[in-house]
Amino acid sequence: MGASADLSLCTLLVRSHLRIDVVCRGPVLYHSGVTPDTPDNGTRRLLRHGFRLGDFDVRPLSGEVSGPDGITTLRPEVMEVLLNLAAAKGDVVDEDQLAHAVWGSKGQSRARLEQCIRELQDCLNSGIESLPHVRRAIEGGYHVVGSLVPYDPERTEIRETAAGYVPASSADGLRGFVRELRRRRVFRIGAMYLMAAWLIIQIGETTFPALHIPDWVMSLIVVLAIIGFPITLLLTWALQLTPDGLIVDLPHGGNDGRWRHAYIVGFAALLISIPFLGYYLVYPGDTPPSDNGAVPGRPLLQYASAPENSIAVLPFSNLSESSEDEYLADGLAEEILNVLVRVSQLKVAARTSSFHYKGKNEDIRTIAAQLGVRKILEGSVRRAGNKLRVTAQLINASDGFHLWSQTYDRGTDDIFAIQDEIATKVVDALQLVLTEASAQALTAGGTKNVSAYDYYLKGRAYLRQPVSSETAQRAEELFENALTLDPDFARAYAGLCETYLLWFRDARDADLFDKGEEACRQGEEMDADNLDIHLALGRLYLQSGQFDLAEKKFDEALSINATSVDAVTGLARVYEESGQPAAAESSFGKAIDLQPGYWSGYNDRGTFRLFNGNIDGAIADFRRVTALTPEGSRGYNNLGSAYYRKGDLENAASAFRQALEVAPTRSTYSNVGTMSYYLGRYEEAAQAYTEAIRLAPDDHRVWGNLGDANQQIPGKGREMQEAYRKAISLAGAELLINESDAGKISLLAHYHASLGDTARATRLIGSALEDNPSDADVYYTAALVYAQAGDIDAAVTAAETAIGQGYPDFL
């Protein structure tokens, strides 16, 4: 950013890019470029359009990686390392070959390559369950591990076109009118309306006679369905959902008066129908409202969609003197949950969802509403020597009253009896009449060996920790110990199966896959209705790319528990990775329907939508995440990323500021500063960059950002020079370690040019372009340097090259 007119012209020609979840620059940002051809050029070209590696979405053209912890932007050379490893399809790539493919020279510093590998491993090992990453081979070199699914660039373009990028002004003639209908989703909404209306009518025809509902109710439903259809189409055409809510989007041109007349007629029909609709919803049949204003037979609104026999088992509190007994409290709650899952008459919230509330002082009503259940089971465990005190209570979420509560003072040998009694008492309190299969399921797959059970619970505790080779190995030992004491302990096989699944995700060792599959099979033979085994097998096959087998196992899991969110989400992942985006979207939606108040489903679908062209849908989902988890930064960071990709800088800045309030880190301060800079709020940008420097005083990029911001503020010339000199000092020190880092060289050139040393800046940027002629970020910085040097032709050429190599072009 220069102060001259030439520099202002350049900034109109070049565009910018924002890093998410890592430090990003304001005026000069990183973006993945294109490296010279390699022997596997076709595969690299295909992968450059994007690919899925395990649970991570990789977008080389934007430099972004999306995983369980949000969206991260990799440095260009780091992304190039990943791209070359992915193109090798799991084969080991020699270090010299990798350096030659990325930097064009085998003599590059090994430390530079190792730094790139470390950054990749840090990025791809985030989350509670470590996911596929880059590993070093024993014989030397590196290879990428994980199921690798390239994205189809042609299908991506189709999705983006269908997502609504056709401007309203293009609707001219019949073809344009049809295109406008598609853009406004009139066909889609109309089809969905007809399907829903048909389904409701079919259900009514089947159930109303048995329920003795008057015939006129069915007639009313049909009439309302008919009246509602044109109104729905009219509203779909007229209204558009934006991040700021619904807005009226009328067609432009000479026919506005005719359209407005149609809208008036449609809205009049809608207003006329509302009183009748409201009357029959509030007064079903001839029943008037009761004296207290409540409508008989209608549940509280927040629990209206939850089945009557729905329950969540929260982690039990550990009241023992030793924190080492935490595994016992968590394990007992988890085992009770696993037992209740087997009861077909119950809808049980998923374990991952329930354990999200561990250690949180949330209101019972809030938890129940978020998990979509009506009952909550909570408790506590206290162990003193060989004595146990277990307290359990079943709570009705709608009023907070206890349906059942009991304290058990027993010896540790009676832990099985306590577990079975609690499960039985819950069933009794809910007045369930169990089938023979459900009654047998309450005790299936267990053990009577106390020591084996203790080993098992300790193994489960390790599975709840972040996965590493150490935790996985320890869990394996504990489950093996349990099976040594009781070879028929089916749940221990299930634990062993899950251990190998998580270990396989982390290490990508074929032996671990085989061990996991064998453990699952043995457990399945002993306990065919164990939900965890089917889920583990489904995830195992998903990770290995065996999508048909994965789909089969998730379907089997749903046959055991039709409301398993984990199984539905697993199917969504299968469809996503196997190239079935419509089915994936539908399954992500079903997972949300099962737990409409829980944040995870919205975050999963939002991430899927963001990388499949539906940015508005992603924004809606991430906004829901922030509403459900206002104390977390994940939703705000992802929301800011979505707004930025849309080009809505105001809302992006707002989202990043909220993330900053929740988690003040270097990256959040830098992101806020970048947004402020692009919005022309240079003093705010300088303040944010100053805070980022406080947290990362040795980062030359943040100092350079501060110099750029101060350059735009009158009277800040001295501060600008100090910031650039500091950036030059830090960048120069780093180049002593790796003198061929084109990215750092280009930024150093920008710093010198900003201080007026354009001769040195021009030499440096020429060297950077020579070292890395296919890096879009280097060309972007070159455009700035040439503009500062007064060479507008060179600046325009560099800017065009940067955009041609994938640099964002929407600001």
Task: Quickly list its features.
alpha+beta, Rossmann fold, 35 helices, globular
Structural features, described:
The protein is of the alpha+beta class and 811 residues long. Among the domains are: 42-155, Arc Repressor Mutant, subunit A (Orthogonal Bundle); 164-282, no CATH class; 310-328 and 343-428, Rossmann fold, CATH 3.40.50. The protein is 59% helix and 9% strand. The protein contains 35 helices and 15 strands. The strands form 4 sheets. Strands 10, 11, 12, 13, 14 and 15 form a 6-stranded mixed sheet that branches. The relative contact order is 0.10.
Short description:
The protein has 811 residues and is α+β, with helices and mostly antiparallel strands. The protein is built from 35 helices and 15 strands.
Helix content: 55-70%
Integer average pLDDT: 76
Shape: globular
Distance between the termini: 15 Å
Task: Work out the strand percent.
Answer: 5-15%
Look at the helices and sheets and give the structural class. Answer: alpha+beta
The quaternary structure here is single chain
The helix count comes to: 35
The low-confidence parts are 1-39, 127-131, 155-172, 252-257, 278-304
Largest sheet: 6 strands, mixed
- Number of β-strand runs: 15
Rg over C-alpha atoms, rounded to the nearest angstrom: 30 Å
